[in-house]
Amino acid sequence: MTQDWIASAGQPLRGTLDIPGDKSVSHRAVMFAALADGTSTIDGFLEGEDTRATAAIFSRVGVRIETPSPSRRIVHGVGVDGLKPADGDLDCGNAGTGMRLLAGLLAAQRFDSVLVGDVSLSKRPMRRVTAPLSTMGARIDTEEGGLPPLRIHGGQPLTGIDYTLEVASAQVKSAVLLAGLYADGDTVVREPHPTRDYTERMLKAFGVDIDFSPGFARLRGGQRLAATDIAVPADFSSAAFFLVAASIIPDSELRLRAVGLNPRRTGLLQALRLMGADITEENASEHGGEPVADLVVRHAPLRGIAVPEALVPDMIDEFPALFVAAAAADSPTVVRGAAELRVKESDRLAAMANGLRTLGLRVDETPDGATIFPGELQGGVVDSHGDHRIAMAFSIAGQLAKGEVRVGDVANVATSFPNYDALATGAGFALRKA
Q: Buried b / exposed e across 310-331, counting CB within 10 Å, b at 16+?
């Protein structure tokens, strides 16, 4: 059943918020813990549908995973050679990260596997990941156009490759590196632009000898992982919505605790500061190889900017939030080099442009970006296209609109940010279920 929200003008945002755990780190933590020798404890695990789907898949391939309390997992690793065949298809739900990383991992196993997903994931292209894996020796069949399901033939000997990605993608890089753990020789991945290095950092935390720098990673096959405990930082992509909301809603001030600040993830933070946002970092530390800090954000007048293209790969998931910040700025904001947004959970460029037009703004689209002209937001009905980030972005827009904003099809928010609406209303949002 379709679920909608009604967003309207709320109160100044106040308080200290604990944002759910990082989705990308949670996926990798349960994967690497499952492959490790020994038992690992994961604290701060994201209790979202995507990450639970990944954990459920590992339970089905022979890994015992305990849940002693919410956001905690105890994973009894079976080693890199201990996974077992499942008795049926493996359902990734809506998790593109899960499917792409698992493709690399399962391509190296002795048994066959089939990865399936929901309606949205089944429309997302997978050839970008199956192509380099095939070069390594993997056999993966897809539907026409390279779409899921992925039918993975086990028992294929893999050979390390030196691969340059055509399009920068942390998911594709990670899939190749995971296959490389099982490959003969070294596996090298080079990127046209540096992407998030969660996989590299966490493999190192699990004892893998891996050499990496921005845009480059190398590891040798045949290594084993040693169990380790992981504290998952708060998800920056989830924090992004509150960073934007507190920046544009007058008299707001929020503290977001222990947010992950991986330098390949925080392009939005830099873009907001270029726009004049008042965001400071406190209590900096490191969790499981990942830098974290409290983020304190206060309302500030924002100015329009030309978003530096160098920041685009480091904020690809945060553009829906940026569009709303741009709508509240004092002059137009120009985005270029973001064609990747057209092949996310939805065509995010088109979805955000159309939604803002519905609320009364002018947005000029280009194939790889848009120019957002700020103005007074009106009420209206916008479609999230089942995309959690689009839904959350328009819940923010509603806080500044002159009338109610109905945000359609918001059920998928639970995939990455469970209880978002409760946290938002507790901070001062006016947001309710339709």
A: ebbbbbbbbbbbbbbbbbbbee
